[in-house]
Amino acid sequence: MPTKQIVQKEENDELYDQAIDDEGNVLGGRQPSPYEAEYFEVISSMSQICRQIISRKARIEESEIFELAPRISALALDHDKQNEQDRQKCFLQTLLKGSFSLLGVKLPKCALKISACNIQIFFKILD
C-alpha cells in the first residue's frame, strides 16, 4: 500500500487536498504530466540525499549525484516549454533550493556537477 502525503493546491481561490503516492501519482485524481512526475521524483530524490547529509549515517555515492544532475538540468531547460498548469506546480526556485542543498556533499566532482545545474537554473529564473 503506497504511503500518502497531502499536497495543498490553490485553484479558483479554494484550497483542497490531494493524496499522492510515493511515485508522485495523484490518488483519486488526474494523472500528473510526465514533466510534473519527473519534477516530483527529482525533488523527492534530492530530499532523500539531504536527509542523508544531515544524518551523516550513510555515505552518499557520487553516482547518485551524477544521475540526478542531468535530470535537474533537463527540468530547468524544459520548464518554459510546459503548459501553464505544470509551471504553476513546478517551481524553478524549489529546484534551485534542493540543488543548492546538494552542495553539502563534500565531493569535488559532485560540487562541479551541481554548480553547473545551479547556474542553468539561475539563467532560467532570470530569463
**Mass-distribution shape:** globular
Total DSSP E strands: 3
Distance between the termini: 42 Å
Biggest β-sheet description: 3 strands, antiparallel
Arithmetic mean pLDDT = 80
Number of helices: 5
Note poorly predicted spans: 1-17
Count of structural domains: 1
Oligomer: single chain
What strand order characterises the main sheet? 1-2-3
Structural class by helix and strand composition: alpha+beta
Helix content: 55-70%
Strand content: 5-15%
Secondary-structure element pattern, one letter each = EEEHHHHH
Radius of gyration: 15 Å
Please explain how this structure is put together:
The protein has 127 residues and is an alpha+beta fold. It has one domain. It contains five helices and three strands; from the N terminus they run βββααααα. It has a three-stranded antiparallel sheet with strand order 1-2-3, with no helix packed on it. It starts with a strand and ends with a helix. Residues 1-17 have low confidence and may be disordered.
